[in-house]
Every structure is written in structure tokens, then in C-alpha cells.
Amino acid sequence: MTEPDASQTKGAQSLHRAMQLLATVGEHNVTGIRLTELAQATGLHVATAHRLLSALVRDQMVAFDAHYTKRYFLGLRLHSLVDLARYAAVRARVREFLAAIVVETRAAAYLYVPLLNDMIALDCVADHRAPHGVVSEIGRRLPMGIGAGSIALLAALPEARARRLIAANAVRYDEFSGLPQEAVWHSIEEARVTGYGITREQVAPGFIGVGLAVLNDRGEPEAAVTVVGSLRRMTPEHVVASLESVRKHLAALGPLNLTTRPPESA
Fold first, then answer.
1. If we measure between CA atoms, which residue out of 151, 136, 241 comes closest to residue 199?
2. Domain residue spans in the chain?
3. How many angstroms separate the Cα of 232 from the Cα of each of 26, 104, 209, 228, 229?
């Protein structure tokens, strides 16, 4: 066996140091931690710690509050990875369920679960003929109020709770074609009447999403299933057929009974 060269040794050392920093940030995640404190806790030079932290921030494993506290916190991507690991058993259970929907709809099917003010894409199965761009990253988080599944879940919540979530996320809707808070609430009111959420070109140009809430055995919304297809393919007839497919397979699947409560605003 050959000895590792200098570049390999240096790479392993950098990785070890980055993991030290990540673990230390996690230990202080409630209050955050400053650069000098991180360097002292890990025994790293401030410049080395800053270089490695910058890389972790770029990859969203760590977040830096540059405006107020000047402290580091665990990042969005790390939280998403933790969430995916937490729901590993659920993903295994719903994979065939989503695949069965895809066979009938020839689109993409997603399972979303609520997390605080967001919805996280827990899993996705797509037809091989689905248009390029229809499949988004598993683990992606969207603010509650964005996406058909989110609309369906909010419509199934008590009105006061749904309004709190929309108000909490109002400033984030600018990322989605400047969507006003009132438009989100109008979509929820429509979903209360129809029983499903629908969005057109909200998350991605050229695509329509239709979503249904998944209820636990107490009748509370705990997740959402969304079918996404192109504007050309998702005719009114195909929307109806997609919803029928999801309802049929949800009835066979039964409640997921996740350990999380329905979402509350932060």
C-alpha cells in the first residue's frame, strides 16, 4: 500500500478541521458563536478558521449573521440533511406509493412535510418522460404558502394558524414572482372549497402543481402530496385524473402518523 501524498494528507486535515468547526457551531447553535471563540475552542488560527467557515457558509452547512450578531449558526443545508435522515423510515414507506402515482400520471410526485414555517421535499419520483426541470432537489425547503401541497395543507389547518404562517412568511414571497400575501390566502380559500391546492408557474416557470393534504389518524394535516407537470400536459382533465390517482393511493397507504405536530409559525 502506498503512502498518501502531501495533498491527500492536507485534504484530510482540512476536512477534520472543518468537522471540528461544524461540531462546535452545533454545540453553540442556540446563541451562535463568534469567529474568535470558534478559533479558541478548536485550537485553530483565526485565519484558518475563517477560511474553512467561509467554505461551510458557501455550502450552506453553516450560516453567518453578518448584520447583527456576527455569529455563526448551523446552516439550512445541514438542517435539511438532518430532516431527511429523521424521516428515512417514512421515505422508505412512501417510495412505492409515489411511484404508483407516477405510473398513472406520467408526471412527478412529491411528498412534503411541514417544518416550522417551511415545507421540505422529503421524496420525489418522476416519470422518465417528465420535462427537464420538473424535478427539484430532495430536501429543498419552500416557505409555507408556496407550492400546491403547501396550499392544500394550509387549507386543512384552522384559519388562525394558517394566517399566522402566511404572515410569518410574507416577506419571503418576493422570491416567487413577488407573490403578495393576499394572493396566497386566495389560493387557500379556493383549496378549502375544492379540497386541493393548485399553483401555476409559482415554483418553476412552465409547470403546474396540484396537491392534497395527508391526514393523520386524528384527522390533522401532517404532510402533502404534490403532482407536478408541464402546462401543456396538465390539462383540466389531467388535473382531475392526477387528483383521483393521489386520493386512491392515499387511501391504500393510510395515515403516516408522523411524530411532528402540524406546523406553527416561529
1. 151
2. 6-74, 80-253
3. 46, 17, 13, 12, 8
Q: At what angle do helices 181-194 and 148-156 cross, to 10 degrees?
A: 70
Class of domain 80-253: alpha beta
CATH 1.10.10.10 holds for 6-74: yes
pLDDT in 10s for each residue of the chain, 266 residues: 455 555 566 678 888 899 999 899 988 887 889 999 999 999 999 999 999 999 999 888 888 988 888 999 988 777 666 666 666 667 777 888 999 999 999 899 999 988 878 888 888 888 876 655 555 567 788 899 999 999 999 999 999 999 999 998 988 888 876 788 888 999 999 999 999 999 988 878 888 999 999 988 888 898 999 999 888 889 999 999 999 999 999 988 887 767 544 444 44
Residue 16 burial (CB count, 10 A): 10
Q: How far is CA 71 from the centre of its chain?
A: 25
Q: 3-state class of 218 per DSSP?
A: coil
